[in-house]
Amino acid sequence: MVAALGVALVAPVATAETLERQDIAARHLFIQGFAGLLTIASADVETIDLVFVAHPDVLRSGGVDLAGDAVGLGFEAPAQSVVQQDGSFEPRLRLAADGRSIKVADRSEPGPHDPAELFVIVPVATAVQLERIIGEARVGALDGDIVVHLMSGDVTIERAGGGSLFVDGAGTIQAGSMSGAVSLTLAGSGAITLERGELFQLRVMLQGSGEIIFGGSAERAEVTAAGAGLVRLGPVGDLRAEGVEPGVVLEVEGR
Question: Residue 34 in contact with residue 135, Cβ under 8 Å?
């Protein structure tokens, strides 16, 4: 698990007029309070490489905080601002073909209705923690653990080690595979799907309405569910499901 890292909002990372790129040596990445389009790509690199761009009416400032082998990114939005995503908006930040550098496909300034964009390239072994995220996030294949706290929006994860996936409001999280110990929590409405994984421990909590689906196998699983929805699990060795209310359907393969 990635330990919580306090983030200091210091000098702005970027505004509409500037596009700043930073190389940071760290093994843990912590992003707090970001709203917009977030891409985390893994590559054969030794440092964390990031580019951030936003209109100041959408996201006022961002700060980088270093602590040991961890880097924290914190963001400050203007009071009562709203990130509006337009279907015609095309992300400007692209991963270069060599997998090691970032190319900016479009240097035109973002407008006040374009979401902020954060593009990060990390070493495959990086552990990632995303706290209070709003918007759309795409995470590539990681060997490190991942922690996601989604307030609203959609998150997809190609691969990660163990960790925690938490929808706290309304949204969806979909992960391809994880391993070790995993926690899946849905508080509000939405869905969490973990397609594959061989886990020694799985914790599932549903509070509200929605679906939690796990397509892998687990040696042990604990399920607590209240509200209305579906919890569907693959094969489980030792299952504890003492707090499942009648409004929730619990399906476990082979049981």
Answer: yes
10, 117, 97, 50: CA torsion to nearest 10:
10
SS3 113: coil
DSSP state string for 13-73? S-BTTB-EEEEE--SEEEEES-EEEEEEEEES-SSEEEEEE--TTT--EEEEEEETTEEEE
Q: Mind listing the pLDDT tens digit for each residue in 113-122?
A: 778 888 888 8
Summarize the confidence of residues 138-165 as an average pLDDT. Answer: 95
Bridge partners of 201? 181
Looking at the whole model, is its pTM more than 0.85? no
The pair of three-digit structure tokens given for residue 47, joined into one six-digit string: 């440092």
For tokens 């960790």, the residue is 163
Query: Which residue, chain included where needed, has tokens 């279907």?
Result: 87
**Which of 147, 136, 172, 143 is CA-nearest to residue 158?**
143
Domain 20-78+125-252 has CATH 2.160.20: yes
